[in-house]
Amino acid sequence: MDGAFLIFPVAFFLLWWFLxxxxxxxxxxPRPETPEERHRRLAKLVSEVVPDYGEIIEKWPLTxxxxxxxxxxxxxxxxxxxxxxxxxxDPTLKRHVSTGYVLLANFRDDIERPIDLTLRLPxxxxxx
Length: 128
What we know:
single chain; mainly alpha; 3-stranded mixed beta sheet
């Protein structure tokens, strides 16, 4: 018989024994984050993610990308951009972040390869 079948019962027994002898209090619980620590962590996240995203939309503003090209998931990007918008008082930066939020629509889950609209633009402008 393969030894893989013994892993679950042995692991379950060891967990049961540990909790029986040490009690649930033996499992360390993480210390809650202070507001200052949370702010520093979020500011670090914003400072890492927003420049990466900005570089993509500056280089290829008229390209539709797969959502997998984003530094984070699309929902997390929305959250980070909202945080970036609230963390600054500079109207120019707020405008850039707002534009970046709108351009998240160019990152789609239903495509696998980028679609470069600049390649199709001359054809669209040509008179018929």
